[in-house]
Amino acid sequence: MAVQTVASTSNPAVDLGPAAALSCRECGHRVPLGPVFACEECFGPLEIAYDFSAYDTEELRGRIEAGPANIWRYAPLLPVPADVADKPNLNPGWTKLVKADNLARELGVTGGLFVKDDSGNPTHSFKDRVVAQALEAARAFGFTTLSCSSTGNLAGAVGAAAARAGFRSCVFIPHDLEQGKVVMAAVYGGELVGIEGNYDDVNRFCSELIGDPAGEGWGFVNVNLRPYYAEGSKTLAYEICEQLGWRLPDQIVVPIASGSQLTKIDKGLQELIKLGLVEDRPYVIFGAQAEGCSPVSTAFKAGHDVVRPQKPNTIAKSLAIGNPADGPYVLDIARRTGGAVEDVTDAEVVDAIKLLARTEGIFAETAGGVTVGVTRKLLKDGLLDPAKTTVVLNTGDGLKTLDAVAGTGLSATIRPTLDSFREAGLA
Ligand SMILES: *Cc1c(COP(=O)(O)O)cnc(C)c1O
Ligand SMILES: [Zn+2]
Asked: Which CATH number describes the domain made up of 96-124+232-405?
Protein backbone atom coordinates (compact mmCIF):
# COMPACT_ATOMS: atom_id res chain seq x y z
CA MET A 1 0.00 0.00 0.00
CA ALA A 2 1.18 3.50 -0.78
CA VAL A 3 1.71 5.64 2.28
CA GLN A 4 0.93 9.32 2.31
CA THR A 5 2.12 11.82 4.82
CA VAL A 6 -0.37 13.85 6.73
CA ALA A 7 1.20 17.30 6.86
CA SER A 8 -0.09 18.47 3.48
CA THR A 9 -3.62 17.10 3.85
CA SER A 10 -4.67 17.82 7.44
CA ASN A 11 -7.32 20.45 7.77
CA PRO A 12 -8.47 21.84 11.10
CA ALA A 13 -11.65 23.16 9.44
CA VAL A 14 -12.93 19.67 8.65
CA ASP A 15 -16.23 19.04 10.44
CA LEU A 16 -16.99 15.34 10.71
CA GLY A 17 -19.08 15.47 13.86
CA PRO A 18 -17.73 13.41 16.78
CA ALA A 19 -14.69 12.19 14.77
CA ALA A 20 -11.73 13.73 16.60
CA ALA A 21 -8.67 12.31 14.80
CA LEU A 22 -7.28 9.29 13.03
CA SER A 23 -5.49 6.81 15.23
CA CYS A 24 -3.31 3.83 14.31
CA ARG A 25 -4.77 0.45 15.15
CA GLU A 26 -1.32 -0.95 15.81
CA CYS A 27 0.64 1.76 17.65
CA GLY A 28 -2.01 4.33 18.62
CA HIS A 29 -0.21 7.21 16.81
CA ARG A 30 -2.74 9.99 16.17
CA VAL A 31 -2.97 12.33 13.18
CA PRO A 32 -5.54 14.96 12.16
CA LEU A 33 -8.54 13.93 10.07
CA GLY A 34 -7.55 13.71 6.40
CA PRO A 35 -7.64 11.42 3.36
CA VAL A 36 -4.95 9.08 4.69
CA PHE A 37 -5.18 5.43 5.63
CA ALA A 38 -1.78 4.19 6.80
CA CYS A 39 0.24 5.15 9.86
CA GLU A 40 3.37 7.16 9.09
CA GLU A 41 5.14 5.50 12.05
CA CYS A 42 4.40 1.80 11.52
CA PHE A 43 2.27 1.51 8.31
CA GLY A 44 -0.61 0.12 10.42
CA PRO A 45 -4.20 0.93 9.37
CA LEU A 46 -5.66 4.22 10.62
CA GLU A 47 -9.13 4.31 12.12
CA ILE A 48 -11.40 7.02 13.47
CA ALA A 49 -11.00 8.09 17.09
CA TYR A 50 -14.10 9.76 18.56
CA ASP A 51 -14.95 12.08 21.34
CA PHE A 52 -18.16 10.67 22.86
CA SER A 53 -17.44 12.15 26.30
CA ALA A 54 -20.33 14.63 26.24
CA TYR A 55 -23.06 12.03 25.71
CA ASP A 56 -25.63 11.18 28.33
CA THR A 57 -26.87 7.63 27.71
CA GLU A 58 -30.62 8.22 27.93
CA GLU A 59 -30.47 11.52 26.07
CA LEU A 60 -28.50 9.83 23.28
CA ARG A 61 -30.96 6.92 23.14
CA GLY A 62 -33.83 9.39 22.79
CA ARG A 63 -32.05 11.29 20.03
CA ILE A 64 -31.41 8.09 18.09
CA GLU A 65 -34.98 6.86 18.47
CA ALA A 66 -36.32 10.21 17.26
CA GLY A 67 -33.99 10.19 14.24
CA PRO A 68 -34.71 9.30 10.60
CA ALA A 69 -35.38 5.68 9.53
CA ASN A 70 -31.91 5.32 8.01
CA ILE A 71 -28.29 5.21 9.19
CA TRP A 72 -28.29 8.93 10.02
CA ARG A 73 -30.24 8.20 13.21
CA TYR A 74 -26.75 7.18 14.43
CA ALA A 75 -25.05 10.37 13.18
CA PRO A 76 -23.83 11.20 16.75
CA LEU A 77 -21.70 8.01 16.56
CA LEU A 78 -20.39 8.41 12.99
CA PRO A 79 -17.73 10.54 11.23
CA VAL A 80 -20.30 12.84 9.61
CA PRO A 81 -21.43 16.43 10.18
CA ALA A 82 -24.49 16.97 12.38
CA ASP A 83 -26.59 18.15 9.40
CA VAL A 84 -25.76 15.06 7.31
CA ALA A 85 -29.42 14.11 6.83
CA ASP A 86 -30.00 17.34 4.87
CA LYS A 87 -27.30 16.59 2.27
CA PRO A 88 -27.82 14.71 -1.01
CA ASN A 89 -27.10 11.11 -0.04
CA LEU A 90 -28.81 7.75 -0.67
CA ASN A 91 -29.74 7.50 3.04
CA PRO A 92 -29.32 3.71 3.35
CA GLY A 93 -29.93 1.46 6.33
CA TRP A 94 -32.65 0.69 8.85
CA THR A 95 -33.15 -2.52 6.89
CA LYS A 96 -35.40 -5.28 8.17
CA LEU A 97 -34.40 -7.61 10.96
CA VAL A 98 -36.52 -10.59 9.93
CA LYS A 99 -37.53 -13.11 12.60
CA ALA A 100 -36.78 -16.27 10.67
CA ASP A 101 -38.94 -18.84 12.44
CA ASN A 102 -39.27 -21.19 9.46
CA LEU A 103 -35.53 -21.26 8.89
CA ALA A 104 -35.01 -21.70 12.64
CA ARG A 105 -37.30 -24.76 12.65
CA GLU A 106 -35.46 -26.21 9.66
CA LEU A 107 -32.05 -25.66 11.28
CA GLY A 108 -33.10 -26.63 14.81
CA VAL A 109 -32.48 -23.18 16.32
CA THR A 110 -34.65 -22.64 19.41
CA GLY A 111 -33.19 -19.45 20.90
CA GLY A 112 -34.49 -17.09 18.19
CA LEU A 113 -33.03 -16.73 14.68
CA PHE A 114 -32.98 -13.43 12.78
CA VAL A 115 -31.87 -12.45 9.30
CA LYS A 116 -30.58 -8.88 9.00
CA ASP A 117 -31.61 -8.32 5.39
CA ASP A 118 -29.38 -5.70 3.80
CA SER A 119 -30.65 -6.48 0.31
CA GLY A 120 -33.18 -3.75 1.21
CA ASN A 121 -30.60 -0.97 0.76
CA PRO A 122 -30.83 1.49 -2.18
CA THR A 123 -28.43 -0.49 -4.43
CA HIS A 124 -29.36 -3.81 -2.82
CA SER A 125 -26.28 -4.55 -0.77
CA PHE A 126 -24.68 -3.57 2.53
CA LYS A 127 -22.15 -1.43 0.60
CA ASP A 128 -24.49 1.59 0.62
CA ARG A 129 -23.76 1.94 4.35
CA VAL A 130 -20.00 2.30 3.89
CA VAL A 131 -20.19 4.44 0.75
CA ALA A 132 -22.48 6.92 2.53
CA GLN A 133 -19.71 7.61 5.08
CA ALA A 134 -17.00 7.84 2.42
CA LEU A 135 -19.14 10.31 0.47
CA GLU A 136 -19.40 12.63 3.48
CA ALA A 137 -15.63 12.43 4.00
CA ALA A 138 -15.07 13.14 0.28
CA ARG A 139 -17.30 16.21 0.59
CA ALA A 140 -15.42 17.38 3.68
CA PHE A 141 -12.02 16.99 1.97
CA GLY A 142 -13.12 18.69 -1.25
CA PHE A 143 -12.94 15.72 -3.61
CA THR A 144 -15.24 15.80 -6.64
CA THR A 145 -14.53 12.34 -8.08
CA LEU A 146 -15.40 9.10 -6.28
CA SER A 147 -13.58 5.91 -7.14
CA CYS A 148 -13.03 2.39 -5.80
CA SER A 149 -11.79 -1.09 -6.47
CA SER A 150 -14.78 -3.39 -6.23
CA THR A 151 -15.83 -7.03 -6.20
CA GLY A 152 -19.13 -5.79 -7.69
CA ASN A 153 -21.49 -4.38 -5.11
CA LEU A 154 -19.25 -1.48 -4.17
CA ALA A 155 -19.11 -0.31 -7.80
CA GLY A 156 -22.90 0.04 -7.91
CA ALA A 157 -23.05 1.73 -4.52
CA VAL A 158 -20.39 4.28 -5.51
CA GLY A 159 -22.01 4.93 -8.91
CA ALA A 160 -25.40 5.57 -7.35
CA ALA A 161 -24.12 7.71 -4.46
CA ALA A 162 -22.04 9.82 -6.85
CA ALA A 163 -25.06 10.31 -9.11
CA ARG A 164 -27.23 11.48 -6.21
CA ALA A 165 -24.57 13.78 -4.78
CA GLY A 166 -23.43 15.25 -8.10
CA PHE A 167 -19.92 13.75 -8.03
CA ARG A 168 -18.09 12.25 -10.97
CA SER A 169 -17.42 8.52 -10.52
CA CYS A 170 -14.86 6.21 -12.07
CA VAL A 171 -14.77 2.71 -10.61
CA PHE A 172 -12.67 -0.39 -11.26
CA ILE A 173 -13.82 -4.03 -11.23
CA PRO A 174 -12.45 -7.41 -12.32
CA HIS A 175 -13.53 -7.76 -15.99
CA ASP A 176 -15.39 -11.05 -15.46
CA LEU A 177 -18.04 -10.12 -12.87
CA GLU A 178 -21.70 -11.21 -12.97
CA GLN A 179 -23.83 -9.37 -15.56
CA GLY A 180 -26.18 -8.15 -12.81
CA LYS A 181 -23.33 -6.44 -10.99
CA VAL A 182 -21.90 -4.89 -14.17
CA VAL A 183 -25.24 -3.43 -15.28
CA MET A 184 -26.01 -2.26 -11.77
CA ALA A 185 -22.68 -0.43 -11.66
CA ALA A 186 -22.93 1.09 -15.13
CA VAL A 187 -26.54 2.26 -15.15
CA TYR A 188 -25.92 5.31 -12.94
CA GLY A 189 -23.87 6.90 -15.70
CA GLY A 190 -20.39 6.97 -14.16
CA GLU A 191 -17.33 5.39 -15.72
CA LEU A 192 -16.86 1.66 -15.14
CA VAL A 193 -13.53 0.07 -16.01
CA GLY A 194 -12.96 -3.70 -16.22
CA ILE A 195 -9.45 -4.78 -15.28
CA GLU A 196 -7.93 -7.96 -16.65
CA GLY A 197 -7.22 -9.62 -13.34
CA ASN A 198 -8.86 -10.54 -10.04
CA TYR A 199 -9.89 -8.19 -7.22
CA ASP A 200 -6.44 -8.20 -5.67
CA ASP A 201 -5.00 -7.02 -9.01
CA VAL A 202 -7.65 -4.28 -9.20
CA ASN A 203 -6.83 -3.16 -5.67
CA ARG A 204 -3.11 -3.03 -6.40
CA PHE A 205 -3.83 -0.96 -9.51
CA CYS A 206 -5.89 1.53 -7.48
CA SER A 207 -3.11 1.89 -4.89
CA GLU A 208 -0.78 2.86 -7.77
CA LEU A 209 -3.31 5.24 -9.27
CA ILE A 210 -3.61 7.08 -5.95
CA GLY A 211 0.08 7.90 -6.01
CA ASP A 212 -0.04 9.06 -9.64
CA PRO A 213 -1.08 12.47 -11.04
CA ALA A 214 -3.84 10.62 -13.00
CA GLY A 215 -5.62 9.88 -9.72
CA GLU A 216 -4.98 13.23 -8.04
CA GLY A 217 -8.00 14.70 -6.31
CA TRP A 218 -9.87 11.39 -6.36
CA GLY A 219 -11.58 9.98 -3.31
CA PHE A 220 -11.09 6.20 -3.39
CA VAL A 221 -13.76 5.10 -0.95
CA ASN A 222 -11.96 1.92 0.15
CA VAL A 223 -8.37 3.19 -0.10
CA ASN A 224 -7.62 6.81 0.88
CA LEU A 225 -11.09 7.20 2.45
CA ARG A 226 -11.04 3.72 4.00
CA PRO A 227 -11.00 4.84 7.67
CA TYR A 228 -14.30 6.72 7.07
CA TYR A 229 -15.80 4.10 4.75
CA ALA A 230 -15.18 1.32 7.25
CA GLU A 231 -17.19 3.05 10.00
CA GLY A 232 -20.38 2.52 7.99
CA SER A 233 -20.41 -1.15 9.02
CA LYS A 234 -20.89 -0.11 12.66
CA THR A 235 -24.45 0.83 11.74
CA LEU A 236 -25.25 -2.86 11.25
CA ALA A 237 -24.35 -3.46 14.89
CA TYR A 238 -26.34 -0.42 16.06
CA GLU A 239 -29.44 -1.40 14.08
CA ILE A 240 -29.38 -5.04 15.14
CA CYS A 241 -29.19 -4.07 18.83
CA GLU A 242 -31.85 -1.34 18.58
CA GLN A 243 -34.17 -3.64 16.61
CA LEU A 244 -33.73 -6.33 19.28
CA GLY A 245 -34.95 -3.73 21.83
CA TRP A 246 -31.48 -2.38 22.75
CA ARG A 247 -30.15 -5.87 23.40
CA LEU A 248 -26.97 -7.55 22.19
CA PRO A 249 -27.55 -10.69 20.16
CA ASP A 250 -25.79 -13.75 21.62
CA GLN A 251 -24.30 -14.79 18.28
CA ILE A 252 -23.77 -13.09 14.89
CA VAL A 253 -22.70 -14.71 11.62
CA VAL A 254 -20.92 -12.26 9.29
CA PRO A 255 -19.52 -12.80 5.77
CA ILE A 256 -15.86 -11.94 5.17
CA ALA A 257 -14.32 -10.34 2.09
CA SER A 258 -11.67 -7.90 3.36
CA GLY A 259 -12.92 -8.49 6.91
CA SER A 260 -13.72 -4.80 7.42
CA GLN A 261 -17.42 -5.35 8.01
CA LEU A 262 -16.88 -7.97 10.71
CA THR A 263 -14.21 -5.88 12.43
CA LYS A 264 -16.42 -2.79 12.55
CA ILE A 265 -19.50 -4.69 13.71
CA ASP A 266 -17.41 -5.67 16.72
CA LYS A 267 -16.33 -2.02 17.17
CA GLY A 268 -19.99 -0.92 17.02
CA LEU A 269 -21.04 -3.45 19.66
CA GLN A 270 -18.17 -2.35 21.92
CA GLU A 271 -19.22 1.29 21.57
CA LEU A 272 -22.84 0.50 22.50
CA ILE A 273 -21.59 -1.30 25.61
CA LYS A 274 -19.27 1.57 26.60
CA LEU A 275 -22.03 4.14 26.03
CA GLY A 276 -24.38 2.10 28.23
CA LEU A 277 -26.93 1.68 25.42
CA VAL A 278 -26.85 -2.10 25.85
CA GLU A 279 -26.05 -4.36 28.77
CA ASP A 280 -22.40 -5.43 29.06
CA ARG A 281 -22.45 -9.17 28.47
CA PRO A 282 -20.64 -11.59 26.16
CA TYR A 283 -21.48 -12.02 22.47
CA VAL A 284 -19.93 -14.35 19.92
CA ILE A 285 -18.93 -13.38 16.36
CA PHE A 286 -18.58 -15.98 13.61
CA GLY A 287 -17.02 -15.31 10.20
CA ALA A 288 -18.16 -16.93 6.96
CA GLN A 289 -16.22 -17.55 3.75
CA ALA A 290 -16.57 -19.60 0.58
CA GLU A 291 -14.19 -22.54 0.37
CA GLY A 292 -12.87 -21.22 -2.97
CA CYS A 293 -11.66 -18.06 -1.21
CA SER A 294 -11.06 -18.95 2.42
CA PRO A 295 -7.79 -17.39 3.55
CA VAL A 296 -9.22 -16.34 6.93
CA SER A 297 -11.00 -19.60 7.79
CA THR A 298 -7.91 -21.54 6.72
CA ALA A 299 -5.77 -19.48 9.11
CA PHE A 300 -8.36 -19.79 11.88
CA LYS A 301 -8.53 -23.56 11.64
CA ALA A 302 -4.74 -23.87 11.49
CA GLY A 303 -4.37 -21.70 14.60
CA HIS A 304 -2.31 -19.11 12.69
CA ASP A 305 -2.18 -15.35 13.41
CA VAL A 306 -1.20 -14.44 9.86
CA VAL A 307 -3.42 -14.88 6.82
CA ARG A 308 -1.77 -16.43 3.78
CA PRO A 309 -3.18 -15.00 0.50
CA GLN A 310 -5.15 -17.26 -1.86
CA LYS A 311 -6.16 -17.07 -5.51
CA PRO A 312 -9.98 -16.93 -5.43
CA ASN A 313 -12.14 -19.41 -7.31
CA THR A 314 -15.75 -19.30 -6.12
CA ILE A 315 -19.23 -18.23 -7.23
CA ALA A 316 -19.31 -15.93 -4.18
CA LYS A 317 -17.54 -13.19 -6.13
CA SER A 318 -18.51 -10.37 -3.78
CA LEU A 319 -16.42 -12.14 -1.11
CA ALA A 320 -13.55 -13.07 -3.43
CA ILE A 321 -10.70 -11.15 -1.81
CA GLY A 322 -7.68 -13.43 -1.64
CA ASN A 323 -5.57 -11.05 0.45
CA PRO A 324 -7.96 -9.60 3.06
CA ALA A 325 -6.61 -6.44 4.72
CA ASP A 326 -8.47 -7.00 7.99
CA GLY A 327 -7.92 -10.77 8.14
CA PRO A 328 -5.71 -10.75 11.26
CA TYR A 329 -8.23 -8.56 13.14
CA VAL A 330 -11.02 -10.98 12.21
CA LEU A 331 -8.97 -13.84 13.68
CA ASP A 332 -8.50 -11.84 16.91
CA ILE A 333 -12.21 -11.09 17.22
CA ALA A 334 -13.38 -14.63 16.47
CA ARG A 335 -10.93 -15.98 19.07
CA ARG A 336 -11.60 -13.28 21.68
CA THR A 337 -15.38 -13.72 21.53
CA GLY A 338 -15.29 -17.52 21.42
CA GLY A 339 -16.47 -17.68 17.81
CA ALA A 340 -15.01 -19.33 14.72
CA VAL A 341 -14.40 -18.77 11.02
CA GLU A 342 -15.81 -21.42 8.72
CA ASP A 343 -16.25 -21.95 4.98
CA VAL A 344 -18.67 -23.78 2.68
CA THR A 345 -18.43 -25.14 -0.87
CA ASP A 346 -20.13 -23.47 -3.84
CA ALA A 347 -22.70 -26.30 -3.89
CA GLU A 348 -23.52 -25.56 -0.24
CA VAL A 349 -23.82 -21.84 -1.09
CA VAL A 350 -26.43 -22.58 -3.78
CA ASP A 351 -28.25 -24.92 -1.43
CA ALA A 352 -28.34 -22.27 1.29
CA ILE A 353 -29.63 -19.59 -1.12
CA LYS A 354 -32.54 -21.91 -1.95
CA LEU A 355 -33.08 -22.81 1.72
CA LEU A 356 -33.40 -19.13 2.74
CA ALA A 357 -35.67 -18.37 -0.22
CA ARG A 358 -37.94 -21.37 0.42
CA THR A 359 -38.22 -20.84 4.19
CA GLU A 360 -38.30 -17.04 4.54
CA GLY A 361 -39.04 -15.55 1.12
CA ILE A 362 -35.64 -13.84 1.05
CA PHE A 363 -33.62 -14.15 -2.15
CA ALA A 364 -30.00 -13.68 -1.17
CA GLU A 365 -26.98 -13.21 -3.36
CA THR A 366 -24.13 -15.72 -3.08
CA ALA A 367 -22.70 -13.90 -0.03
CA GLY A 368 -25.98 -14.56 1.82
CA GLY A 369 -25.72 -18.19 0.75
CA VAL A 370 -22.30 -18.25 2.36
CA THR A 371 -23.55 -16.97 5.74
CA VAL A 372 -26.62 -19.22 5.83
CA GLY A 373 -24.55 -22.21 4.68
CA VAL A 374 -21.89 -21.54 7.29
CA THR A 375 -24.58 -21.10 9.98
CA ARG A 376 -25.92 -24.55 9.13
CA LYS A 377 -22.43 -26.05 9.25
CA LEU A 378 -21.56 -24.37 12.57
CA LEU A 379 -24.78 -25.76 14.09
CA LYS A 380 -23.99 -29.24 12.82
CA ASP A 381 -20.48 -29.06 14.26
CA GLY A 382 -21.78 -27.84 17.63
CA LEU A 383 -19.91 -24.50 17.39
CA LEU A 384 -23.05 -22.33 17.24
CA ASP A 385 -25.44 -22.71 20.16
CA PRO A 386 -29.01 -23.40 18.90
CA ALA A 387 -30.50 -22.21 22.21
CA LYS A 388 -29.13 -18.66 21.87
CA THR A 389 -30.34 -15.59 19.96
CA THR A 390 -28.60 -15.64 16.60
CA VAL A 391 -28.41 -13.02 13.84
CA VAL A 392 -27.33 -14.03 10.33
CA LEU A 393 -26.44 -11.29 7.84
CA ASN A 394 -27.77 -11.28 4.30
CA THR A 395 -25.63 -8.60 2.70
CA GLY A 396 -26.87 -8.68 -0.90
CA ASP A 397 -29.64 -9.38 -3.38
CA GLY A 398 -30.05 -12.59 -5.38
CA LEU A 399 -31.17 -10.68 -8.48
CA LYS A 400 -27.53 -9.68 -8.97
CA THR A 401 -26.25 -13.27 -8.97
CA LEU A 402 -28.91 -15.11 -10.96
CA ASP A 403 -26.35 -17.46 -12.53
CA ALA A 404 -25.81 -19.12 -9.16
CA VAL A 405 -29.33 -20.55 -9.29
CA ALA A 406 -29.60 -20.81 -13.09
CA GLY A 407 -31.09 -24.32 -12.94
CA THR A 408 -34.17 -22.94 -11.15
CA GLY A 409 -37.15 -22.22 -13.41
CA LEU A 410 -40.51 -23.31 -14.71
CA SER A 411 -42.38 -26.19 -13.03
CA ALA A 412 -44.08 -26.98 -16.35
CA THR A 413 -44.95 -25.43 -19.72
CA ILE A 414 -48.59 -25.98 -20.73
CA ARG A 415 -51.16 -24.90 -23.29
CA PRO A 416 -53.61 -22.33 -21.89
CA THR A 417 -56.28 -24.96 -21.17
CA LEU A 418 -57.49 -26.65 -17.97
CA ASP A 419 -56.90 -30.07 -19.53
CA SER A 420 -53.30 -29.26 -20.16
CA PHE A 421 -52.93 -27.97 -16.56
CA ARG A 422 -54.43 -31.22 -15.19
CA GLU A 423 -52.17 -33.30 -17.42
CA ALA A 424 -49.15 -31.56 -15.95
CA GLY A 425 -50.13 -32.99 -12.53
CA LEU A 426 -50.28 -29.63 -10.77
CA ALA A 427 -54.02 -29.47 -10.04
C1 LIG B 1 -18.33 -6.26 0.30
C2 LIG B 1 -19.29 -7.29 0.74
C3 LIG B 1 -19.16 -7.98 1.96
C4 LIG B 1 -18.03 -7.88 2.96
O5 LIG B 1 -17.12 -6.94 2.84
P6 LIG B 1 -15.83 -6.70 3.75
O7 LIG B 1 -14.78 -6.36 2.75
O8 LIG B 1 -15.51 -7.95 4.51
O9 LIG B 1 -16.17 -5.57 4.62
C10 LIG B 1 -20.17 -8.86 2.30
N11 LIG B 1 -21.21 -9.09 1.50
C12 LIG B 1 -21.37 -8.45 0.33
C13 LIG B 1 -22.56 -8.77 -0.51
C14 LIG B 1 -20.43 -7.53 -0.10
O15 LIG B 1 -20.61 -6.91 -1.27
ZN1 LIG C 1 1.19 3.01 13.78
From this structure: 3.40.50.1100
Surrounding ion ligand 2 within 5 Å at CB are 24, 26-27, 29, 39, 41-42, 44
Determine the distance from the C-alpha atom of residue 280 to the mean position of all C-alpha atoms in its chain, rounded to a whole number. Answer: 25
Q: What is the DSSP string of 250-292?
A: SEEEEE-SSSHHHHHHHHHHHHHHHTTSS-----EEEEEEETT
Report how far residue 163's alpha carbon sits from residue 184's, in angstroms, rounded to the nearest whole number: 13
Q: Are 42 and 24 in contact (CB under 8 A)?
A: yes
Q: Looking at this protein, which amino acid is placed at residue 241? A: C
Q: How far is the CA of 204 from the centre of ligand 2 (A)?
A: 21
Tens of pLDDT along 403-424?
A: 999 988 898 999 999 999 999 9
**pTM exceeds cut of 0.85:** yes
pLDDT in tens, 354-398: 999 999 999 999 999 999 999 999 999 999 999 999 999 999 999
Backbone angles phi, psi at 195, to 5 degrees: -110, 135
Q: In this structure, which residue's CA is closest to atom 7 in ligand 1? A: 258
Query: Of all atoms in ligand 1, which is nearest to the CA of residue 365?
Result: 13
Q: What CATH number was assigned to the domain covering residues 7-54+125-229? A: 3.40.50.1100
Tell me if 123 sits within 8 A of 160, measured CB to CB: yes
Q: Where in the chain is the domain with CATH 3.40.50.1100?
A: 7-54+125-229, 96-124+232-405
